[in-house]
Write a structure and sequence with these properties.
The chain is an alpha/beta fold and 240 residues long. It is built from eight helices and five strands. Helix 2 links the parallel strand 2 and strand 3. The two termini are 17 Å apart.
Length: 240
């Protein structure tokens, strides 16, 4: 079936569907540097790809992507935009509350950016306390064991920010967006996420954490996406 994107549906279509299905896919990402070879929308594009494929198979509605996140760490690189933690928490909470009033109760969060996780955890803790009938799945696709295992089997290693997995994901989303010839990175030497923006850029001059992100392929990316979709479909079906 075609993906059910909320922005492309009419209100009568949503009304009919809500009588049958109270699941909603939420997509959150960032607009931040991803090395010299990947676009600033990487953290939006990969979860959008996953959301579309899940919707095509499970028929679940996909909400519009929230394309800004907590990206302070990357602000030493041109183009990165960020929100504060407080703004992000408020935004996610109000989004959930608005969707709840419309009738959705089960929220499958495809979050593409690690910096957003704390905001989501805060919202989920609060929402499930005040709304006992609300359910959440909060995902971090790049941390899934299936992704790490596939990378180890294919390359004998895993890579971090703008590394093999993210490069492969964007290749599947739209390979024309990957500047393959510019794909360079620096091996992870103790990245914590608590560095200052200047310290992060000094440690990882290209912005990518990983020695050879340019080795990523469409084939690797497709297998990665297929495994993620299969896993997430199972979780959605448990709610069905």
């Amino acid at each position: 079936m075609e993906a059910r994107l909320l922005t492309e549906m009419t209100w009568p279509e949503v009304e009919r569907l809500l009588r049958l299905d109270d699941r909603l896919i939420l997509v959150t990402g960032s607009t931040e540097q991803h090395g010299r070879h990947l676009p600033l929308g990487t953290d939006q594009f990969i979860p959008q790809l996953l959301a579309r494929r899940l919707s095509e198979q499970a028929g679940v509605v996909v909400a519009p992507v929230l394309a800004l996140g907590m990206s302070e760490l990357h602000t030493a690189f041109p183009g990165t935009l960020t929100l504060t933690q407080e703004t992000l928490q408020t935004t996610y909470l109000e989004l959930m509350q608005s969707a709840y009033r419309q009738g959705w109760r089960k929220f499958f969060v495809l979050n593409g950016h690690g910096g957003n996780r704390k905001a989501w955890e805060w919202v989920i803790a609060l929402a499930t306390k005040i709304k006992p009938d609300v359910r959440f799945h909060l995902t971090a696709w790049w941390q899934e064991p299936e992704v790490r295992a596939l990378s180890q089997a294919e390359y004998g290693r895993t890579e971090g920010h703008a590394g093999l997995a993210e490069t492969a994901g964007v290749l599947v989303y739209d390979k024309s967006l990957v500047r393959v010839g510019a794909a360079t990175g620096t091996a992870d030497h103790g990245f914590t996420g608590d560095e200052s923006p200047a310290a992060f850029r000094a440690a990882y001059p290209s912005g990518a954490i990983g020695e050879r992100p340019g080795e990523a392929t469409v084939s690797f990316g497709e297998r990665m996406i297929e495994r993620l979709v299969a896993k997430y479909l199972h979780l959605l079906d448990e709610w069905g």
